[in-house]
Fold these 2 entries.
Entry 1:
Amino acid sequence: MDKSSPLVDKFFASVTPNQPFSRLTSPQPPDYGDLKSWAAFPGKKSVALLEPNTESQNKLKEVDCFFIHPTGFFLKEWNFDMNTDSATSQRTDLMLATQATVFNKECNIYAPEYRQATFAAISQNLGRNSSQALDLAYLDVKEAFRNFLENYSDGKPFFLASHSQGSLHAQRLLTEIEFKKVFSKQLIAAYLIGYPLEEEYLRNLGASVCTRFLDEGVIIQFQTVGEDVIRSRLKFWLFDGKEYCLKKINQLATTNPISFSKSEGWVKNEINSLLMPKISGISPLFDYGATNKNNSYVREINYADDQNFYARIGKSGFLETKGSTIDRILKNDYLGEKDLHIWDYQIFWNHLRKDVETKVNKLKGNT
């Protein structure tokens, strides 16, 4: 799947489980009637409530956002046991602070913890082990969404949002026939960022679940890279209607989040958009072997000083970027692949936020 190097091989050896996947040894399923099973929930203290240059607001809104966070689990087990005293839980907080906060001005945020598959399962071809670990994670996401609809949604309009592994599961969630009526009537838009969404897959969703999914702006997907970059990965885990399997990507359904169009020309950023978290202490984000929580936490989020960047949809379908902002980020690109995966939300944070606001105002009939 990926180009191999001694450094990459060593990393994967350190995070790949030694034993085969087994339901018998998997962590116990979460109880979504318990607030401990939610990383963010209305009324619960969470970094998902942080806003730039202002105090956090925790007032109930008329619109919801169901947010599925990405992978933060890098240990040699197939699925996360949802231990809130773990480094994995801290990584989730960082992702909530830089991703889920996009939606907090307009939405109540519901972000479930789940038995996420370990990074090795989603980033490598580990056969049935990968497929089964991802399937276990999805069962939690589906149950959390069902719980959200039955106990908290009360028919309100909502956004579906996600990143990386979360977006893989969100794609599958949209295929569920039991939620067809809900998606047709209550879903405003889905931000399925950081994982491939094929044009063909989207057309199938439109035909089987909701034709509105084919309307521009209803489903937003992009994967960020540097200029003229084609990712080395050739296949991705995708749901084929029965199970997760490796599939080659043909045509990506990509939206440029600056212009919110599918134009292939360069579009210049004209606003404060790139978001940076201020962290107290040393974040466990890049200490992949960390197991226990340390004393670091996200203190605040603010816009970066350098906001000079452009974006375009490249020939490969990935979202290409350039500018001094991107150059600064890529100074730490040790592998030289110009992959900006973990920056997908942060770079376009305010563009996404403004799009959410526009959609909510339109829903309310405001200009």
Entry 2:
Amino acid sequence: MNAISFRSATSGDLDDLIRLEKAVERTLPRRDIFATDEKSFYAPIVRGAGHILLAFDAERRLAGASVIRYPSPEDPENLGRSVSLPAERLLAVRHLESVFVRPDMQGKRLAERLVRENMRLTAGSGRTISMATVWPGNAASLKLHLRLGLFIRAFAFKYGGKPRFILMNEGRPDNEATPILVDAMDLERHRALLNSSMLGVVVHPAAKTFLIEYRPLLPA
């Protein structure tokens, strides 16, 4: 992995980015896991409405990408609305939109390296509230975002009705409280706990699925 190099994407990279995204999508066991986007979605991001970081292998082939977008406060898809952020704070939201890695490069923590570096590069943007959406059954993505310092804060149906956790890097769990463990796909239980000011904080393996640990949200 020492041969991996990174650089910011330009408009000339978008065709290759779309090809990589589609190649990753074809390997997934379920379409719910990953919502693909089109060139028209990425074009404003490379023009300044966010930042796309690309990774290349030793042969200079595209190996992965991390996409961070800056939604406008008026954007109905601004994830801050899902957790009832006040209007003046919506301008501080950045979306960790997606990260995808070439199938032969997966399992090497490249996705985490990409997102961490992209978060570092966009740290000076004033977008201090990091948010993301993850399909409840995607243990790998949940673990990644929890390692990045985000917590599960809400549940919604997004992208044409697909179930999604909404994660955010704000909030403090009460680590002294008794944890509650919930099966990954028990969507109604997740919704109930999140609506009662609980945080999803850890993913635990289980026999046939995995469990999500919840703890109370401490007052600000």
